[in-house]
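Fig. S4 source data, part A: sequence.
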Amino acid sequence: ESLDAYRGMTGAPAHIHASDADFLTDPAKNLSVMLGGARSASAAEATLEDGQALPFGSGFIKVIHTPGHTKGGACFLFGDALFTGDTLFSDSVGRTDLPGGSHDELMGSIRNRILPLGGGVRIYPGHGVGCLIGELGSRNRFIAPGP
């Protein structure tokens, strides 16, 4: 289904980091043109900013801007659960070879924005299994300490 179809089914607004907002509406930027089917969605109802607190149940989800996979990459912290999307996986990191990606920015985001959250925070990546931040050193070659 498309984002617009989910909006229609749920009535939920779409949110995206300001740096990636045009990916929704521009098939050349979201690379769907290259994949054989130009897809776009209506513009987001709101943009996300670093540090923003989104109401969720009786608590809040904190937006953590993590550029690198894309300019507007973001992770979402709720209690001791961090939803990392394509920024960080338990055994790897997100791609940086597409437009807007930067390996140096991604590694800086992980080093400076995610790892300081502490070893007891569990990551829930966009692909694969999750793990504790404290386990990344033994599971992820990009995070593992050098020789």
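Fig. S4 source data, part B ends here. The first helix runs from residue 3 to 10.
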